[in-house]
Amino acid sequence: MAKTKQQPAHEIRMGAIKATIWENQTTAGPRHNVTVSRIYKDGDEWKQTESFGRDDLPLLAKVVDLAHTWIFENAA
User: Fold this and answer.
1) Which residues pair with 37 in a beta bridge?
2) CB 39 within 8 A of CB 48
3) How many CB atoms lie within 10 A of CB 64?
4) What confidence tens digit (pLDDT) does each residue in 16-66 have?
5) Whole-prediction pTM value?
6) What's the start-to-end Cα distance of the chain, in Å?
C-alpha cells in the first residue's frame, strides 16, 4: 500500500525564508511542529537549507513569530 505524503497545515514565506507548520494528531489532540528553511538558487536549480546568515535572522524572527501566531489562532 502506497504511503501518501503528509501535506503541511500552513506555510509562511517572506522573501527567501519559509516556515512550514505541520499538524500531528495525538491522543491529547492536535499538536504543531514548525520547520524553517532558506530557499536559494544554485545555477538553474532551486534548493533549500536550514542554515541562516546574519542578515537572514531578522526575517527569520518575523516568520517564526507569524508561525507562532498562526498556531495559536488555529488551535482546536
Assistant:
1) 18
2) yes
3) 15
4) 999 999 999 999 889 999 999 999 999 999 999 999 999 999 999 999 999
5) 0.86
6) 31
